[in-house]
Amino acid sequence: MRKSQAKKLPLAPDAKFNDILVTRFVNNLMWQGKKNTAFSLFYDAIERVSKQTNDNGYEVWRRALNNVTPAVEVRSRRIGGATFQIPSEVRADRKVSLSIKWLIRYSRDRNGKSMADKLAGEIVAASKGEGGAFKKKEDTHRMAEANKAFAHFRI
User: Fold this and answer.
1) What is the pLDDT, as a whole number, of residue 1?
2) Contact 147/132 with Cβ under 8 angstroms?
3) Which residues contact 124 (CB under 8 A, 6 or more apart)?
């Protein structure tokens, strides 16, 4: 028999924007438990975004997250010796998680002097519908569209 599922711990909202989503983003951005470094990095990136776009950096970041959030994904399922990629809708919690992870991953892969520069560049690109994270979302949607024929195998 399986154990009961672990309870989700409530996150404290950040000090500047009073938003739980910012804390979640920073927790994913953080390395080796250095949360203050991650927060300063994030705030620095938001500042750079607002200078680049002449717009509210926080709003641009929210727009970027929404642009990168996937609606469908493919999941592998083995049926009768063959493995099929079956498209399925993404849970709300997982949508946010994927968009945060993609934004951070592709900002780390960018060219730039500091991580704040890279993150700011990726946020601006994603808010415009460009960049690596947005491309990843488009590829995911394209794969789901291509495998629509196997949707009847859904669990």
Assistant:
1) 77
2) no
3) 49, 52, 53, 60, 64
* d(C-alpha 121, C-alpha 53), whole Å: 11
Alpha carbons 107 and 122: distance in angstroms, whole number:
5
Does domain 20-153 fall under CATH 1.10.455.10? My reply is yes
Quote the pTM value.
Answer: 0.91
What pLDDT does 72 receive? Answer: 94
| Cβ atoms of 126 and 68 closer than 8 Å | yes
Q: How confident is the model at residue 149 (pLDDT cuts 50, 70, 90)?
A: confident
Report the amino acid identity of residue 47: E
If you write DSSP's letter for every residue of the chain in order, what string do you get?
-PPPPPPPPPPPPPTTT--HHHHHHHHHH--TT-HHHHHHHHHHHHHHHHHHHSS-HHHHHHHHHHHH--SEEEEEEEETTEEEEEEEEPPHHHHHHHHHHHHHHHHHHS--SSHHHHHHHHHHHHHHT-HHHHHHHHHHHHHHHHTGGGGGG--
Please give the backbone phi and psi of residue 34, each rounded to the nearest 5 degrees, phi first: -90, 80
Domain extent listing, the chain: 20-153
